[in-house]
Design brief:
By secondary structure, the chain is mainly alpha-helical. It has 7 helices and no strands.
Length: about 160
C-alpha cells in the first residue's frame, strides 16, 4: 500500500474510493449529515496517524470500519454527555431560584425542553455553562456560523413562546 510509505497520490486515491462509505457509515451511527462529515474527518485523521501500523493491507476495509465505528461512538457519547450535563445544570438552576423568578425559570425550561436538540445544546452551553461562541464551535465541532444561527433561532423561538 503506497500510502503507508508516504505516497500522497496513493492516499488521495484511497480517500476518493472509501470516503463515500465512511460518510455512509458515520451517518448511520449519528443520524446527522453534519456529524457524519465531522466523524469522517476524524476518521481520516486517524487513518493518517495509524496507517503505518496496518500490517496487512488486505485488512484495510475492516480496519477503516473499526475507526469509523470508534469515532462515531465517541461522537454519540459526547453528545449524550452534553445533554446530561445540560439537564443537571438546568435542574440545579431551577432549585436555586424562588418566587416569581422560579415561575419564569420553569416556563423557560418548559419551552427549552421543546426546542430541537441542537438548539437546546447551544443554549445550555451558552447561558448555563458560560461558553462563548468560539468555544461552543470547538466543543460541538461545528462552524461558528452554525453556532450563531442556532443560537439566534433558539432565542427567537423562546421569545415567541414566552411572554415576560
Amino acid at each position: 500500500m503506497g500510502c503507508q510509505h508516504g505516497d500522497a497520490k496513493a492516499f488521495d486515491l484511497l480517500v476518493k474510493r472509501w470516503h463515500p462509505k465512511v460518510l455512509k457509515m458515520a451517518y448511520w451511527h449519528s443520524k446527522s449529515g453534519h456529524a457524519a462529515k465531522d466523524i469522517a474527518q476524524e476518521t481520516w485523521a486517524g487513518v493518517v496517524k495509524g496507517i503505518d501500523k496496518l500490517h496487512d493491507p488486505a485488512r484495510f476495509p475492516v480496519w477503516l470500519n473499526q475507526i469509523v465505528y470508534r469515532k462515531s461512538v465517541d461522537w454519540v457519547r459526547n453528545i449524550q454527555k452534553q445533554r446530561r450535563v445540560g439537564r443537571n445544570e438546568v435542574k440545579e438552576s431551577m432549585h436555586a431560584e424562588d418566587g416569581d423568578d422560579s415561575d419564569r425559570l420553569e416556563q423557560v425550561m418548559k419551552h427549552l425542553q421543546a426546542l430541537p436538540e441542537d438548539q437546546k445544546i447551544i443554549l445550555t452551553l451558552f447561558y448555563l455553562k458560560g461558553h462563548n461562541i468560539r468555544e461552543i464551535s470547538e466543543i460541538l465541532t461545528i462552524p461558528l456560523g452554525t453556532v450563531k444561527s442556532r443560537l439566534f433561532g433558539a432565542r427567537e423561538h423562546l421569545k415567541k413562546k414566552i411572554n415576560f
